[in-house]
Amino acid sequence: MVTSASVAMVSEECVRWVLGLALLAGIALVGLRLYLGRDEELRLRPGEAADFAHLDLGRRGNVYLLCPSEPAICSQPADATSPVFAMSVDRLYALVRDMLATENRLSRVSEDAERHRLVLIQRSPVLRFPDIITIELIPIEGERSTLAILSRSRYGRSDFGVNAARVKRLIEKLQAAAGS
């Protein structure tokens, strides 16, 4: 026979289990955030450098690639085609640098001004997951220029569309700043 005392004991036991699991989940999330917040996460690891002419993206669930159709510099099919800007590559490079200065949680890993190339890491807001962003600007004759952007997650198999949204947002901001 079930008594109110036995129901109360089961209820108290369930509450303890739920609170215990919530505590463990909270500890795990804090640990993950601390781990991902380390300075080591702001450096490229071996094999993470991107060369647009020799890309090996493997699984593509957490990657977004924007490349120009001309000149064809990307060895992999792009997710979208880069716009062409009616300005010199140096002017576009300055616009990109200014635009990136307004981005949150963004760290510059390396910059090669001669090649008009930037490598950055942007962290997610809550758990600080690092995404690697490589941007290379390309001059086109006639004082025009374009760019290639590779945005990819360091961890996981899916990014829930974060990399695509980031690249699209950056291009929209860049086009607005360029007046095109």
Features:
single chain; 180 residues; alpha+beta; Alpha-D-Glucose-1,6-Bisphosphate, Chain A, domain 4; 2 domains; 3 helices
Explain briefly what this protein structure is.
The chain has 3 helices and 6 strands, in the order αββαββββα. The chain is of the alpha+beta class and 180 residues long.
Amino-to-carboxy terminus distance: 77 Å
Q: What Rg do the Cα atoms give?
A: 23 Å
Top CATH class of the largest domain? Alpha Beta
Characterize the biggest β-sheet. 6 strands, mixed
The overall pLDDT average reads 88
Number of strands: 6
**CATH fold-level label of the largest domain:** Alpha-D-Glucose-1,6-Bisphosphate, Chain A, domain 4
Oligomer: single chain
* Biggest sheet strand line-up: 2-1-6-5-4-3
Q: Judging from the principal axes of the Cα atoms, what is the shape?
A: elongated
Structural class: alpha+beta
State the CATH superfamily name of the largest domain.
START domain
CATH architecture verdict of the largest domain? 2-Layer Sandwich
**Stretches with pLDDT under 50, minimum 5 residues:** none
Task: Please work out how many helical segments DSSP would assign.
Answer: 3
Query: Strand portion, in percent?
Result: 15-25%
Helix and strand run: HEEHEEEEH
Helix content: 25-40%
How many distinct domains?
2
Describe this structure in words.
A hairpin with a 6-residue loop joins strand 4 (117-123) and strand 5. The protein has 180 residues and is an alpha+beta fold. The model has no long low-confidence stretch (mean pLDDT 88). The protein has helices at 4-36, 89-100, 162-178, and strands spanning 63-67, 80-81, 106-112, 117-123, 130-140, 144-153. It starts with a helix and ends with a helix. Helix 2 (89-100) crosses helix 3. The protein folds into two domains: 1-36; 46-178, Alpha-D-Glucose-1,6-Bisphosphate, Chain A, domain 4. The protein has a six-stranded mixed beta sheet, with helices on one face.
